[in-house]
Amino acid sequence: MQIQLFGHEQEIDASAIDAEPAAIHEQVREYEAGARTAFDLEIEFPDDFTGDVMRAMSEIRPGETRTYGEVAADLETAPIAVGQACGRNPTPVIVPCHRIVGADSLTGYAGGLALKRRLLEHEGAAIPGDS
Fold first, then answer.
1. Start and end of every Methylated-DNA-[protein]-cysteine S-methyltransferase DNA binding domain (predicted)?
2. Is 97 designated active site?
3. What is the pTM of this model?
4. Which one of 97, 101, 106, 120 is the catalytic residue?
5. N or C: which end of the chain has fewer CB within 10 A?
């Protein structure tokens, strides 16, 4: 399903979320309006490494970021593996892969770096590489 967020379209796999599409859209609208900082939707995490990374993403609070290397260290894997799993996240924004950043730059995001930057700015997070 497509969601609209800050003038960008983002594809999410609604089958991984235990909620009606209308409820998903409503929570996205509330997030964009600043009335919601986190989603309270039940997510079905894959039973694999991607699911492990998604669980780690879910623990990063709004306004905070973690680097690919930090998440990799926690999961005893390589940063590139974390980045690849972020790219497979079926529910971006809702499971906040945008909160995982490079050590000194934003790097990669399925919705594009402009949307990743906008999401982090919306949440008040520091942007790596910005002075």
1. 48-125
2. yes
3. 0.93
4. 97
5. C
